[in-house]
Amino acid sequence: xxxxxxxxxxxxxxxxxxxxxxxxxxxxxxxxxxxxxxxxxxxxxxxxxxxxxxxxxxxxxxxxxxxxxxxxxxxxxxxxxxxxxxxxxxxxxxxxxxxxxxxxxxxxxxxxxxxxxxxxxxxxxxxxxxxxxxxxxxxxxxxxxxxxxxxxxxxxxxxxxxxxxxxxxxxxxxxxxxxxxxxxxxxxxxxxxxxxxxxxxxxxxxxxxxxxxxxxxxxxxxxxxxxxxxxxxxxxxxxxxxxxxxxxxxxxxxxxxxxxxxxxxxxxxxxxxxxxxxxxxxxxxxxxxxxxxxxxxxxxxxxxxxxxxxxxxxxxxxxxxxxxxxxxxxxxxxxxxxxxxxxxxxxxxxxxxxxxx
Length: 357
Ligand code: UD1
Known about the structure:
The protein is an alpha/beta fold. The protein has helices at about 15-25, 40-50, 65-75, 90-95, 95-115, 150-170, 220-225, 255-270, 290-300, 325-330, 340-355; strands at about 5-10, 30-35, 60, 80-85, 120-130, 190-195, 195-200, 235, 250, 250-255, 275-280, 290, 305-310.
């Protein structure tokens, strides 16, 4: 049987590079498209080394360029798309909403448009647990209500989920009376994966997270503090109503997360979906506090971290973690790596990019 081809938009980035590795390991052909706006070639080179594949097609392009996306779909027979190409800094999105709406929505619309025009496609959208907002009904299931987003970034995730849902619904009606006038062609099916907090790096330490400037997220800030790039980690708030006063999150290992994508793509391509649009939480189901994470990092890597408690960060939710039963049962996927293994991999990666090991 011919190999299926998966387009990974944003495939040179942190999540995209790990997903590319796992797709290739699972026997898929991958086309990577990236505009390199928030990464360099480090991870793509790492992907080639890990997989031993020097021939992975790489398209330097911006998915906001409608003609280029159409052209790409004309040149490859794409069976599924995983769409990562998006901006993701919460604070920046508050300061520059137009930049976020334009980039995150235009690129996804172009991907969907081209998918339809070229005979239909299976689309996996990279969503976020941020859509659940603040809730005291924990853990959250896929049925938990979405709350209005607290940032333009979060809003783009909600809007893109809705766009995907509507496009799939319309595509199911092509050719029928309801949608007789539509010029679109192929059927679209899709899955939105709602990630909790992806952390860590590939066990080879050849790919990982490469934040530009001061990291917004916790784990890159921890590893950069440990290596001496940052003087001190600020823990945002220790007066939350949680056991140790710091926020609770569901930290999901990046390789486990990548494997969830392979399971979701296979489900779409093997015709196993129960509905044309499905949503899955991708987390561990295990809440971990910021203090616990810092302590675990120190313990597993045998070092002391310089940190202090400061005020709460505006916009942070107290606690969120996933009910993972749906993903476990339907995708046949489960998070496997322990938080200690993941934190060791994050540290190995930080040392690798510092040229220490
Ligand atoms: C954030 C975004 C989420 C996005 C995710 C991407 C919100 C509210 N959050 O999640 O949408 O998908 O990043 O990875 O939209 N912390 C510190 N010190 C630091 C950094 C973080 O104490 O220097 C704490 C935070 O207060 C939080 C926890 O660590 O309690 C995790 O923070 P972070 O890694 O930024 O992720 P989230 O805010 O959960």
